[in-house]
Design goal:
Distance between the termini of chain A: 35 Å
Structural class of chain B: alpha/beta
CATH topology of the largest domain in chain A: MetI-like fold
Low-confidence stretches of chain B: none
Strand content of chain B: 15-25%
Number of strands of chain A: 0
Oligomer: heterodimer
Number of domains of chain A: 2
Largest sheet of chain A: none
Shape of chain A: flat
Low-confidence stretches of chain A: 1-5
CATH superfamily of the largest domain in chain B: Periplasmic binding protein-like II
Mean pLDDT of chain A: 89
Number of helices of chain B: 19
Helix content of chain B: 40-55%
Shape of chain B: globular
CATH superfamily of the largest domain in chain A: MetI-like
Structural class of chain A: mainly alpha
């Protein structure tokens, strides 16, 4: 006998008690999620609405009154060449980081999913950059990129190419940042892919093998389609986080040289906390939000269909 | 009649007693001053010592110090001020004092502690110019810095130069740098002659020295489009592009100087403290910056922060605390401990500073210093550095770079002026 059966008051007995029971049962889930919802409202929704409101004002955070300026902040940002430079840089960063990071993460996951020796060691090796504090990673990479003493230029010279000022030359700075971003992000995506790979039933591969499929066919027609939901998840979250990149750029280049690595979020931060232009910075945040939303919806539209082999 | 008088007398006595008691209670009430500043270990240690001394002298005061890393400082300070939960006393860049004062988040220095006239008598004019808003002073200067030339006597000797005679003119500076600069067979720099690092205050100092006005008095906006400014920027960028005595690929300039790999470097006097702590064996000397031509100007840009009092704080005691932090005795200790220069007139000519080979040139540079005419912080370094990079990295002409700097400077200054409107 279930616990429920013992606690339900009889319908034909005390009507009030029965209604109270029904109310409790209906409201219990909401009460359970209430703390989470309140927290989410407080730290996400309310600040979002406030930010939206802020974007229509000449908002000075320390001034008691904030003059309404309508769409002036939006007009100002659309006319600001540096905002578009930052947007272009963000897009370059995203295109440079996301596909390569995903491909490399999948390759590593596929290798680690086979029976190679030292699997745990390699998993740890690839995951270490994820847990390395950004400031420490930045110091290490600054030395790797050092124009005279850095190992990067030693390798470049060894293969007969000209050494470069990797972080100080506008032509190379974004490439250098992208490289660090790929290095630091492979581990997390590898773990997600690895979990998904281990969730694909072995029987599919056995059946394919009986049908004469080779490794490539198995990968192409079984692994890749069944990884689609995971790929979509990684793609969406990677694109979002690449559009929100800030810390890495801030510690490696500070957006320089000559704004070659200035990304949208670092520009928003500079305009808000450096120049006290909070209204304008809020408007930029909403434009960025709109762009991320559109890109995410497009990704869902084209990749959102699930694949199953039932 | 007598009965009535004694009644009134008793009543009067009771009132006097009550007033006296309440005054006593008020006097005994403990005041807590929450003080924020951006972090540096040496500065924190010194401010903590000052706080202990101040609390001893004022037993009803408790000071709570919070030292915030500079990178997070404004992220923490601004929302706290907006929420009304900010500190009682804190530091801000002097250029931002008008914007904060106009917003009403800081209050003027209590005249019971220091009147405007006293402040003007005690401090040198460039250090307090930007602390005045609407005829009132809103803070005391701290972390006042000029630009001086650090040089390495060992590398001077190796290059056949006399360490007792640092370069006197810009031409000499280049000659000295050429003598010191070394390259290997492949042309890679192994020892560098001189470095400005493209650092904004150094570049602005060169322009000031060269007589560039930097400011249009008619429009009250920045103006870098003068032949003097162009010549100064050309001089700085020529070190990289023409004379090749500064190599940006050589790495961080102060590290190179610490490792005896850089002959001369422009920097703030506070670097004295940094070199002493981080490279105790480094032998270095300090000189005033060389003049553009023999007998020319050695004036440099004065940069500083201000200790200010929140408008919600208890006026007199908090003003007293920030005054204590910038008192003559405190400034002497700042100079000794952190290398921050004194801004009080009485201290600049102290015999102990005049006889100190490192501090004497710094004190001289302080006397000749000029504050920036603008209020926007981005013009102190960021935008000027970009103009420099436009020449060194993109090959644009100094005139074109300064035209761009003027346009961007005007935009930034207008924004700040808008914020400073009451």
């Amino acid at each position: 006998m279930s616990a429920e059966a013992t606690t339900i008051p009889p319908r034909n007995g005390n009507e009030r008690k029965y209604k109270w029971y029904r109310f409790q049962k209906a409201s219990a889930p909401y009460i359970f999620i209430l703390p989470g919802v309140v927290f989410y409202l407080m730290v996400t929704i309310v600040p979002m609405i406030t930010g939206f409101w802020m974007s229509f004002h000449n908002w000075n955070i320390i001034r008691p009154t904030q003059p309404w300026v309508g769409l002036a902040n939006y007009r100002k940002l659309f006319a600001d060449p540096l905002f578009w430079t930052a947007m272009k840089n963000t897009l370059t960063y995203s295109i440079g980081v996301v596909p390569l990071q995903m491909i490399l993460a999948l390759l590593v996951a596929l290798l680690l999913n086979t029976g190679i020796k030292g699997k745990k060691f390699f998993r740890l090796l690839y995951y270490l950059p994820v847990i390395t504090p950004l400031s420490i990673a930045a110091v290490i990479w600054t030395w790797i990129y050092h124009p005279n003493l850095g190992i990067f230029n030693q390798i470049v010279k060894f293969i007969g190419l000209a050494p470069q000022d990797w972080l100080g030359d506008p032509a190379w700075a974004m490439f250098s940042v992208i490289l660090v971003a790929i290095w630091s992000g492979i581990g997390y995506r590898m773990v997600v892919y690895l979990a998904a790979l281990q969730g694909i039933p072995r029987s599919y591969y056995e059946a394919a093998e009986i049908d004469g499929a080779g490794n490539w066919d198995a990968f192409r027609y079984i692994t890749l389609p069944l990884l689609k939901p995971t790929t979509l998840y990684i793609l969406v979250t990677s694109v979002i986080s690449s559009f929100q990149v800030f810390g890495l750029v801030n510690v490696l280049t500070g957006g320089g040289p000559l704004d070659a690595t200035q990304v949208v979020v670092s520009y928003i931060f500079k305009r808000a906390f450096g120049d006290l232009q909070f209204g304008l910075a809020a408007a930029m945040s909403f434009v960025l939000f709109g762009i991320i939303l559109v890109i995410t919806l497009i990704q869902w539209k084209f990749l959102g269909k699930e694949v199953t082999y039932e | 009649m007598t009965k009535n008088m004694s009644r009134y007398g008793a009543l009067l006595l009771a009132v006097v007693l009550l007033v006296g008691l309440s005054c006593n209670v008020a006097a005994q009430k403990k005041v807590t001053i929450v003080h924020w500043q951006h972090h540096s270990p040496a500065r924190l240690e010194l401010v903590q010592t000052f706080a202990e001394e101040f609390m001893k002298q004022n037993p009803n005061v408790k000071i709570e110090i919070e030292s915030v890393p500079e990178s997070d400082y404004f992220q923490k300070l601004l929302p706290a001020l907006a929420a009304g939960s900010g500190p009682d006393t804190f530091q801000i860049p002097t250029g931002q004092v008008p914007a904060y004062a106009a917003s009403g988040v800081i209050q003027q220095i209590d005249p019971r502690v220091a009147t405007a006239r006293q402040i003007e008598n005690d401090f040198i004019a460039p250090a307090i110019k930007r602390l005045k808003y609407d005829g009132k002073y809103y803070g005391f200067p701290v972390d006042t810095q000029t630009i001086v030339l650090f040089y390495n006597p060992k590398l001077f000797k190796e290059a056949g130069l006399d360490p007792a005679r640092p370069p006197q003119t810009w031409d000499e500076l280049i000659k000295y740098a050429q003598a010191i600069h070394k390259r290997d067979v492949k042309g890679v720099t192994t020892q560098m002659g001189v470095a400005t690092g493209g650092y904004g205050p150094v570049l602005v100092s060169l322009m000031i020295q060269n007589g560039a006005p930097l400011w249009d008095n008619k429009t009250q906006l920045p103006d870098f489009n003068s032949p003097q400014a162009i010549e100064a920027l050309k001089f700085a960028t020529d070190m990289v592009t023409t004379y090749k005595v500064e190599d940006p690929q050589f790495g961080q300039r102060y590290n190179a100087f610490r490792q005896d790999k850089l002959g001369m470097v422009f920097g703030h006097p506070a670097m004295i403290g940094s070199f002493r702590t981080t490279a105790p064996n480094l032998d270095f000397l300090v000189a005033e910056v060389p003049a553009p031509k023999a007998g020319g100007s050695r004036s440099t840009l004065l940069t500083s922060w201000a200790y200010v009092v929140s408008s919600k704080a208890e006026s007199e005691i908090c003003s007293k605390w920030v005054a204590y932090l910038t008192s003559a005795d405190a400034q002497k200790r700042w100079t000794l401990t952190t290398g921050e220069l004194p801004s009080r007139r009485a201290l600049l000519d102290l015999p102990e500073y005049k006889s100190d080979k490192l501090l004497a040139p710094c004190m001289e540079s302080m006397k000749k210093s000029v504050p920036a005419p603008w209020t926007t912080r981005s013009l102190d370094d960021e935008l000027v550095r970009k103009a420099y990079q436009m020449v060194t990295l993109k090959g644009e002409s100094p005139a074109a770079a300064l035209k761009w700097l003027t346009q961007e400077g005007i935009k930034a200054e207008k924004e700040q002026q808008e914020l400073a409107k009451p």
